[in-house]
Amino acid sequence: MATPRLEPDLEQELIEHERQYWKALQEHDTARAVELTDFPCLLTGPQGASRIDKQMYIQRMDTWHDQIRRADMENILVEQLSDDVAVIAYQVHEEVLVDGKPVTLETANCSTWIRRDGHWQCAAHCESIAGDAYGRDRQAAN
User: Is 111 exposed, middle or buried (0-12, 13-18, 19+ CB in 10 A)?
Assistant: First the structure.
């Protein structure tokens, strides 16, 4: 089976969608984030893995306490897996407020986008905090 070629302009389109997603999170623009999401959506991160339906997603957006002040994407890679499935992977330098205090994070992210009725939506997103794969660079919890 031949590897699909990246459609013309698809790389820039998906990068822009991913940036719009971060902007929606930063601005707490729930409507835009929902528009960019395919439900149910799979999410993974330091808290584990979850399947989120639209109502749960809206509740999370409404009660989200971390305030994203800055999110700079770099080292961006895009692969088109089929006509209607593509993956984008990248690193992010994040500046956020957590419990009112500034925190800087370096993360690795990956989103799977699917095309439905001509529109790309995020079906899965993974985020991991950058560092040693075995956690040797993190402090033990008290």
Answer: buried
Q: pLDDT tier at 85 (50, 70, 90 boundaries)?
A: very high
In sequence order, the 6+-apart residues with CB closer than 8 A to the CB of 57 are: 33, 34, 37, 39, 41
DSSP 8-state assignment for residue 131: S
pLDDT surpassing 70 at residue 1 = no
Cα atoms in the Cβ-side hemisphere of radius 13 Å centred on 1: 3
Q: Is the predicted pLDDT of residue 142 greater than 60, yes or no?
A: no
Where do the domains of the chain lie, and which CATH numbers do they carry?
10-129 (3.10.450.50)
State the Cα–Cα distance between residues 41 and 124, nearest whole angstrom. 5
Which pair of tokens denotes residue 119? 């529109």
What is the C-alpha end-to-end distance of the chain, expressed in Å?
Answer: 51
Q: How far apart are CA 126 and CA 108, in angstroms?
A: 8
